[in-house]
Amino acid sequence: MILIADSGSTKVEWNILSKQGIIESAVTSGINPFYQDAANIEHILREEFSSLQREFDAIYFYGAGCINEEKQDIVTSALLRVFSTREIYVGSDLIAAARSLCQDKPGIACILGTGSNSCYYDGEVITGHVSPLGFILGDEGSGAVLGKKLISDILKKQLPAPIIHEFFENYHTTSTEILENVYKRPFPSRYLAGFAGFLSKNILNREIEQIVLTSFRDFVTRNLLQYPESKYSPIHFTGSIAYYFETQLRKVLEEQNLKIGQIKQAPMQGLVLYHQRNITQ
Predict the structure, then answer these.
(1) E strand or H helix at 14, and its extent?
(2) Phi, psi of 199 (to 5 degrees)
(3) Domain covering 104-265 in this structure, CATH number
(4) Is residue 281 pLDDT above 70, yes or no?
(5) Domain with residues 2-86, CATH architecture
(6) Which residues pair with 57 in a beta bridge?
(7) The dihedral of CA 136, 141, 145, 151: what is its sign?
(8) Which SS3 state, helix, strand or coil, does residue 148 take?
(9) Digit-coded pLDDT (tens) for 206-221
């Protein structure tokens, strides 16, 4: 049996997998080694991992923040304190997206969620990567950037008055409170991404849809077209923004005659398929 984890800063989805399929699933609080040390992660695993199963042939942990050996070692250390296993693999959420969406075939894998990211995957490893740079300098097409563009247009009165009125009625907030959350409180990207629901609700409004289309066009120009392989490779997406704004995303990709692949809300289903092929028992 193997254990697969798909981790974000908010929650971790766990699946125990055998050759026959998923045996058991669990959900725990989010794990991100940028913000938690091994002791904190161990505490979450001991307190919240509901399965009694603690021995596995292999553990595959994919997560936000697991981008280098130092951060990966933090997660590995915590896993070894809680589970017994012969093999542990800790990788980034980007390799999770690539394996989930491309399986063992070449392609471009993209994440459009709170942040954005992309890579070229040759069917085994990531061989090309354009740095996303975060929501201040980059993260085009992400929930954080969509929220940033919406808030900017709201506060500068660039949207129709009924839309602005609906926004403040819906969120019961003020410009002062918004600026406080963006500039002085933790996790501003998560705060801004929280306004993506307003964009989705009002997507039939021309000005609102234009915010989404413009951000997706920026993602294509500043990220996807930097890959020479984008001219002929399928381009796949995972993440809530890609999923809920699929119509706008497809429109922008078609404008550039790009080959559209899968668009999935989350990577776990694909990860299960990827790893199930390699289970021996």
Answers:
(1) strand 11-18
(2) -60, -45
(3) 3.30.420.40
(4) no
(5) 2-Layer Sandwich (3.30)
(6) none
(7) positive
(8) helix
(9) 999 999 999 999 999 9
Would you tell me the crossing angle of helices 206-222 and 143-155 to the nearest 10 degrees? Answer: 130
**Measured between alpha carbons, how far is 25 from 188 in angstroms, rounded to an integer?**
31
Query: Which residue, chain included where needed, has tokens 């809530």?
Result: 240
Q: Where are the domains of the chain?
A: 2-86, 104-265
2-86 and 104-265 share one fold: yes
What residues contact residue 213 under an 8 Å CB cut-off, 6+ apart? 248, 251, 252
Torsion on CA atoms 188, 189, 191, 194, rounded to nearest 10: 170
Residue 249 in contact with residue 113, Cβ under 8 Å?
A: no
CA 224 vs CA 24, 95, 102, 162, 211: distances in Å:
37, 17, 16, 35, 19
E-strand stretches of 33-93: 55-56, 58-63, 84-85, 88-92
DSSP 94-135: HHHHHHHHHTTS-EEEEEESSSEEEEEE-SSSEEE-----HH
Tell whether the torsion through CA atoms of 34, 35, 36 and 37 is positive or negative: positive
Task: Confirm whether pTM is higher than 0.90.
Answer: no
CA 191 to CA 168: how far, in whole Å? Answer: 15
- Rounded Cα distance, 150 and 38, in Å: 38
pLDDT class of 92 with cuts at 50, 70, 90: very high
Report, as an integer, the average pLDDT of 150-163: 95
The DSSP bridge partners found for residue 118 are 110
How far is 187 from 115, CA to CA, in rounded Å?
12
